[in-house]
Amino acid sequence: MLSVVERSSGPIARNRLRSSLSTFFAWLIREGLLDANPVQGTGKASERRRDRVLLESELVAIWRALSEGDAGDIVRLLILNGQRRDEIARLRWSEVDFDRAMIALPPERTKNGLRHELPLAPPALDILRRRWANASGKANDAYSLA
Q1: What burial class does residue 43 get, using C-beta atoms within 10 Å of its C-beta: 0-12 exposed, 13-18 middle, 19+ buried?
Q2: pLDDT tens digits for 89-106?
């Protein structure tokens, strides 16, 4: 099964499936429902490091194709800030400091578990200010996509 996934979807998909299956089977063993982990002994596929970045012309094409609204704003913020998808899509108003033009992500929201402060370029700040103004009165702490 791992080989089939690797052929159809690549080595990274194979390794992620292998990891998920191993975790699942380990849980079954802990629950007393299985005696051995069938994934044990299977090999990991070698993964190549991703090194391609979007060209400026590609970013311009994406920017121009974006619609107005939630999804468009999220993608624009991703382009402007280079953050991980969920760091922007799940952004909370308490993490935005308009006075300092900064996003401050707490350790529990970063991949490395450390607080991360991100300066906001003027266009990113404009997007967030507009969203804040539109959310006033109905906004709780969540950066609402609705």
Answers
A1: exposed
A2: 888 888 999 999 999 999
